Amino acid sequence: MVVNEFNNKLIIVISGQAGQGVSTVESILTSILKKNGYNVFATKEYMSRIRGGCNSSEIIVSDISINSFCDKIDILFPLDKGYSSHLLKRISRDTIMIGEKGNFYPDHENIIEIDFSSIARKLGGNIYTNIVIAGLMLGMLDTDISISEEFIQGFFGKKDNEVIKKNIEAIRSGMAEGISLKQIKINIEKKEFVKTNLLFSGTDSIALGAIAGGCNFIASYPMSPSTGVLTFLSQQSREFGIIAEQAEDEISAINMSLGASYAGARSMVTTSGGGFALMIEGVSLCGMTETPLVIHIGQRPGPATGLPTRTEQGDLEMVLYSGHGSFPRIIFAPSTLENGFCITQKAFNLADKFQIPVFILTDQYFLDTYYDIEPDTLDIPDTGNKSCIIESNLDYKRYELTINGISPRSVPGYGKGLVVVDSDEHDEIGHLTEDLDIREEMNRKRISKIEEIKKAIIPPVLLGDLNRNYVIVSWGSTFNVIAEALKNKEFKDIALMHLIQVYPLHDSIPEYLKNKTIILIENNETGQLGRLLKLEFGINIEKRILKSNGLPFSKEEIEENLRIALRS
Predict the structure, then answer these.
(1) Whole-model pTM above 0.70?
(2) pLDDT in tens, 117-139
(3) Is there a shared CATH topology between the 199-377 domain and the 461-567 domain?
(4) What is the number of other CB atoms lying within 10 angstroms of the CB of residue 61?
(5) CA end-to-end span of the chain, whole Å?
(6) Does domain 4-192 correspond to CATH entry 3.40.920.10?
(7) Three-state SS letters, 264-332
């Protein structure tokens, strides 16, 4: 018998049709493994259909913290034949396939046949198949049966006792099968402290950051992959005093949020590129009325509907230039789940302070990825949330001309003054005007805020010695996978400059890149950040690693492309 041994890390992929419960297996498995002391990472890719197609989830189990996607597959669980072409490039001769007869790639030799359906039917039906599969993996990884039973009890807690009992039997049966697989040996250390780690997703990161930022109003229309933020905040609305409204469309959503902000709420919308396209007139209204608003955009591939359940960093330029007329804005792009929490909280305070739209750009990969993190490594948000709303007096001027362009902001009913807001050009009080001199003064007032905004810019994250000859420039969700690739000793001459704030850009950027060979890495077709760097600083980047097929970069893909860049 040939023994396959895995030390320190195991990469598992589950593949099946939509409706076969791939996500259920992923959720159960990762939660129980973390409770047993294993570091876990999970991400998924799925088609835009309720049934059929081919979806897959990657789960990495490790004895150290893992937070980046890999192409390699150690063990594949095919629940359907559809994986054969979908995952073919990721399957090697060393990949072990475990599943039912008929679901295997015909030429693959490293196969273990297990009739999961038969085991499930003995328990009462095919509905238990996924629990059996999860149990098998837990058995292979030497997990505590009592932890699994307790989790299943809670997971199915709203079901009747018979359903709970059957699922516990299913997890036990699967674990027994996994323990019996002596041809697979897994050596991954469990760690006690991991049991108390947080299992955190990108969606959790943004939603919890919004709560930390004092968000008390969100109006949105569901659109993948951003919907989870609306769902999370609506679920927590009672506890945290949040009004969560599913609007009839995106136009209504942004206008509701602007209205709530005018009344004093800390407002937010969450959407994706296509939904944001409908909101753009509202962005101009936000700019003209100087109303604070946080706009979260979970990016996905376009144009039009594009690939609605895939990932891409394709909306930077749309967000940067959205809205007619000129007015300031801030654009953030969190790099890790940890700083996504802090960035979102910060966004609410900056929107309130500068009375502008503040954008948070994530993507499907960021939102649908999760891994365990130590609570004390979570980026702690700013201390407190300082309200910038003042009590008005009888002489109150909503758009008073000030040196820094920031007018004192009050809200209706707070003080004796009248709070006048108009979408037309207006005077200092807020009344509509066509006085051309006042028009120029108001334009200068709004734009002059940019100097104050620049004082709050987050500098680039620097990884490695910038005296090295090569510097990678990247932004957003690509950080972890690039950082993982740069651990490879063959890239010792490459440093990384990663942007969490992509507008306004930090003034130090040109100096960091001076006399360096720059390698741009972006998950889009045209290198949108690269074009912004050229526009702002005259920096021309010739070496570019770009991807726009709807999938995130993998560690192996970054490594291979860096080798090509170094040779060229």
Answers:
(1) yes
(2) 999 999 888 889 999 999 999 99
(3) yes
(4) 27
(5) 46
(6) yes
(7) CCCEEEEECHHHHHHHHHHHHHHHHHCCCEEEEEEECCCCCCCCCCCCCCCCHHHHHCCCCCCCCCEEE
